[in-house]
Amino acid sequence: MSVLAAFMVPHPPLIIPEIGKGEEKKIQKTVDSYEAVAREIAALKPDTIIICSPHKETFSDYFLINGEDNAEGSFEEFGAADIRIRVKCDTEFVKAVEDACLKENVMAGTAENDVRQPLDHGTMIPLWFIGRYLDKFNVVNVGISGFSLLEHYHLGVIMARTAEKLGRRTVFVASGDLSHKLKEDGPYGFDDDGPVYDDRLMDLCKRGALGEMLDFPQLLCQRSAECGHRPFCMMSGFLDGKTVKSRVYSHEDVTGVGYGICSFYPDGNSDERKFRDIKIREEELSVAGLPLSDDPYVRLAQRAIYGYVISGRHIQIPDDVSEDMLGKHAGVFVSIHQFDHLRGCIGTIAPTQENVAAEIIRNAVLAASSDYRFLPLREFELDSIEISVDVLGEIEDISSQKELDVRRYGVIVRKDDREGLLLPNLDGITSVRQQVAIAKQKAGIDSSERVSLQRFEVVRHYQDPFAAFEHEHE
């Protein structure tokens, strides 16, 4: 068996004696539980230990996995520079995860150009304990992202499949503290939702009800100031489809921060515990009553948005997508309007994905969830939005504004490392001067500064076919 076990652990720096200098005795239950878990992991003799830390470098739209042969870090930040952690990374495992993520449209992988990634304290503290009892193992170090809880769960599913495929005896360690808002005199103060979060989480861990990890409201997680929920969801995905024997070792909140330690051992298989599949089936029922455009480009964007907003997943490219979308590479903008007002817009000037279909899916999800000007789109809004998709044509250098036409051409302005883009034929944009001024503003370029100019045409796809006719004949 490749999926050996999963463990939930905290990462308070003071638990290291050289840092705590006696303060670690205040959380002695946590220390003792950590020691017990480390001994259990050593007894399992894993080939590979996956550690997910919320303090690894984090991106809103990407899961970063350490791709180096070796990784190291120190506790210098906490006054203990002499304590260094060095590990060997399982690069074969990481490459297999990357390949699987590419096939399943999960935005995860290594950094470009082999950028060195020092180990963070959320990764090193579990390794400090484990390393006292086990000296031969490889590590897969993964961070979290701004994606949904279900996307974190999905990456855990992929990691379990990878372990099975490679025949790796693998343990998953989810490093994360619970609420940071448990005491008025604690370092982060108190919030009523702090104890609510801790009680709810520890209860489901006791019952092994890992599917309930996906049901925590975003507001509860925010108000409780937890830092471990996404790692816990990824850990739960690692055990997808398996019945588990769960054990709670300890839960402490003496410092105002919740520290919970639990273990989960698989002891059988069950379709009823394939929680991602269950969420997708629920999503399909919800989507059934929502409109789908006749335009294939908009329809794909709708599917991507519905899937992400309802269940938090990135859809895969459907089988019925046209050859045109599969064979073309281009920048794409996805715009969402609600009651004639912009509700989100994200795009790419040049292609970043393998084809236009993948570009649409990526940008549709980001337009619905990550446009900083708006709150993320919510499920009750889905029947009131209009979506359009712009596929960009070739970008041309131009020498003056005289070569622009606000109806026909979009514009890109550049000054040093700043650039701004504005699409063509937008409501309220009536002159080239206005178009260029807005593009400058978006780039943070002063209106009086000289800029280089580029233009491009787009093919705009509308949700409502009559909207295209109306725009053409205004």
**Strand order in the sheet with the most strands:** 4-5-7-2-8-1-10-9
Q: What is the helix content?
A: 25-40%
Supply the helix-strand structural class. Answer: alpha/beta
Strand-residue proportion: 15-25%
Quote the CATH topology of the largest domain.
Answer: Protocatechuate 4,5-dioxygenase, Chain B
Assembly of the depicted chains: single chain
Q: How many structural domains can be distinguished in the coordinates? A: 3
N- to C-terminal separation? 66 Å
Number of distinct helices:
14
Descriptive terms for the model:
34% helix, eight-stranded mixed beta sheet, 474 residues, Protocatechuate 4,5-dioxygenase, Chain B, Dna Ligase, domain 1, alpha/beta
Structure description:
This protein has about 475 residues and is an alpha/beta fold. It folds into three domains: about 5-275, Protocatechuate 4,5-dioxygenase, Chain B (3-Layer(aba) Sandwich), CATH 3.40.830; about 290-390, Hypothetical protein ph0010, domain 1 (Glycoprotein, Type 4 Pilin, 2-Layer Sandwich), CATH 3.30.700.20; about 395-455, Hypothetical protein ph0010, domain 2 (Dna Ligase, domain 1). It is built from 14 helices and 18 strands. It has helices at about 15-20, 30-45, 90-105, 120-130, 150-165, 195-205, 220-225, 230-240, 275-285, 295-310, 325, 355-370, 430-445, 465-470; strands at about 5-10, 50, 65, 70-75, 80-90, 110, 140, 170-175, 240-250, 260-270, 330-340, 340-345, 385-390, 395-400, 410-415, 420, 450-455, 460. The strands form four sheets. An eight-stranded mixed beta sheet has the order 4-5-7-2-8-1-10-9, sandwiched between helices. A four-stranded antiparallel beta sheet has the order 12-11-13-18. The protein has a four-stranded antiparallel beta sheet with strand order 14-17-15-16, with helices on one face. Helix 6 packs across helix 7 (about 220-225). The N and C termini lie far apart (about 65 Å). About 45% of the residues are buried.
